[in-house]
Amino acid sequence: MTKTFEELGLSAELTRALRENKFDEPFPIQEAAIPLILQGKDVVGQAHTGTGKTAAFGLPILSRIKPDGPVQALILAPTRELAVQVTNEIGRFAKYTGIRMVSIYGGQSINVQLDKLRRGVQIVVATPGRLIDHIKQGSIILDYVKFVVLDEADRMLDMGFIDDIKFILFYVNEDRQTCLFSATMPPEILRLAEEYMKDDIEEVRLNEEEVALDTIDQSYLVVEEREKIRHLTNFIKQNQSEKAQTIVFAATKQRADRLSYKLRQDGFRAVTIHGDLTQKQRDNSMFKFRKGTEDILVATDIAARGIDVPAVGHVINYDVPDDPNVYFHRIGRTARAGGVGKAISLVSQDRVADFERILGLTKLPIRKLNDELGIAVPVATQRSYGGYRRHSGGYGGGGYGSRSGGSGRGYGGSRRSYGGGGYGNRRSSGGRSYGGGRRSYGGQSRGNNYY
What we know:
The chain has about 450 residues and is of the alpha/beta class. It folds into three domains: about 10-210, Rossmann fold; about 215-375, Rossmann fold (3-Layer(aba) Sandwich); about 385-450, no CATH class. The protein contains 14 helices and 17 strands. An eight-stranded mixed β-sheet has the order 10-11-9-12-13-8-14-15, sandwiched between helices. Strands 3-4-2-5-6-1-7 form a seven-stranded parallel β-sheet, with helices on both faces. α5 (about 110-120) links the parallel β3 and β4. α6 runs parallel beside α8 (about 160-170).
């Protein structure tokens, strides 16, 4: 039976704000993670977007820090959009606590951020690059930080932030509580956890069923590349009566710009968001989309983990993503917080094999359509790529030195085998050997042995 937020141990100030924001009962990841974080545990959480991760770490942090004083909590995010989203979400929960927070990211005037920092904040939500700028000039001091959260950690590693993260964590007291949340758990994430988190890590993993992808009507259509735009506009027209906003994902910035231009030519209200736009342009696009003055957002994957717009009813994959896991991040932009939505993918002939890998990763059916009107045809039995368990690894080789000396670790778990050490132990000089046990990081309901 699901517990209430009060039963999880949250304060009256927080539960009051939760009720005002229509949070009636915890989602699975919140019910699992909040008590552990309140107990002071280091937590590794794996869950897809749209499952309530921000509240899972934000609420216990608000419960355990003081409303006055220096920066006590640091949350790192991969993109500006996600940093702002996390700040806004936690800010809603903090309404009656007196705790102040700030978003720190590139593309915004550093003077604006300095003004907020001078007034005093207790929580900093930041992208790594701009945070390092503040650290170097002494405008953000991390000496009193008790909580560190790495949000969307896999995305940060994909974007090349690993060295920046290590630089930042060097300035944070080792006697801290660290939480890492990620949609996927590649080996680099696990190594980061072992190096920078306490020995008694608690894991929280959601099964696919708990992600509630069954609230998303998924379908795909195999089309000629030159016919994609026609199918896209037809699908949007046919679903306009539902009065739901649409996100269209494109593979490149140039394609996103061209798509948005073409949609506006055809009479649709469309805006674009991608990495080549200035921060002001991106903010303006998101403002219009959130306010509903524009119905369609054409985006690259920079937006796949930083948009939280409840009115999004449709996600269209104009281009199939190279990484099958990105598919799930994209479609998670609809059916937010238990809602319902539609996701359709336009699969060109040269990307059929890539989409078959997506079919093999999901337990839920993705309907194959034989035209843009949504008429389904029988789908062949989906391929099975096995469990998400890499039974033997070859992830060897050292390279990451220890802050307090020490030889490398040898990972020899029963589900994974990380050959050769080199990932230094910060707290002891001897190498460690992991032979499975409680922290065996293998296992997930979806398989992807194709890697």
